[in-house]
Amino acid sequence: MMSPDDFYEWHEEARQGDIVLCGVSRIVADDRHSPAQWESLDTHFLEIEDGWGAGRSLGVAAGLGLAMVTTHDCQLDKEWNQRVRKLERTGIPRELAEREAASDVSLDRTLIVSPLVDPSELRGGQGNLLAGKVIGYLPVPTHPDNLVTECVVDLTYQCTIDRLDVAKITSITEAARKQLRYALIQLAALRTADLGFEVEAVVGRTIQKVEVPARDPLTVHLQLDDGQVIQLLQQPGTPDQQTGRTGDFFSSGGHS
């Protein structure tokens, strides 16, 4: 697990990895079963009569808790950036375009979050969970001001929320965000990104060709002068923070 100083870093703008206080919800069966790690989140149950049709109800479990934003930065301000560029093309100065776009509360309303849960309530061993060795979970250290206690982000629980019903509590460093992205990739796509190689295999060799396969854009193939082909995993990019709004994304702010 990363140290608190390496993990936490306050920033005003909304970013992937922000820790927020918000409502979370999920669809549940008739028996309203709640896994131990989600019991504190499932504080309210709603039955939607005839939600399935033919007289069958639809169940929803919901509650309030801390969660981490998993939506990528580019998506958080996608509609806002599009509106700003459109206004600029009409001759409106950048500052005025940003102000006008920010006044439209219909832009970029939704984002995806995953709740923070107590690792002692999970199977898989608390030590392994806090060491980041269990796929689907990201370890989170205790915040220096105790805004967050030691826990894990449960990436297996994802829900869509409205940004205007969110309070930002704190934010994290770029190093921590990279760990989040890798954890998301492991869970949803690669599972185990085993693209390692022996350093000795490439020392003294010349790269003759670099290729990014169209059918496998996450990898880079390096063809060496001895015929070997080395596979590398591309690192996720970080967007230019100057292309997004600097504040007022959530309904209310927080502090570091």
Chain-averaged pLDDT: 88
Helix fraction, binned, reads 10-25%
The profile of the biggest β sheet is: 8 strands, antiparallel
Number of strands: 11
Order of helices and strands: HEEEHHHEHEEEEHEEE
Question: What's the oligomerization state?
Answer: single chain
Please give the radius of gyration in angstroms: 22 Å
Number of domains: 2
Q: Structural class, from secondary structure content?
A: alpha+beta
Per CATH, the architecture of the largest domain is: Roll
Strand content: 25-35%
Low-confidence stretches: none
**Distance, first to last CA:** 19 Å
Could you say which overall geometry the principal axes of the C-alpha atoms support? Answer: globular
By DSSP (H or I, 4+ residues per run), the number of helices equals 6
Query: What is the CATH T-level topology of the largest domain?
Result: SH3 type barrels
CATH class of the largest domain: Mainly Beta
Describe this structure in words.
This protein has two domains: 4-192, SH3 type barrels, CATH 2.30.30.110; 195-232, no CATH class. 20% of the residues lie in helices and 29% in strands. It contains six helices and eleven strands. Helix 3 crosses helix 4. The two termini are 19 Å apart. The model has no long low-confidence stretch (mean pLDDT 88). Residues 235-256 are annotated as: Disordered.
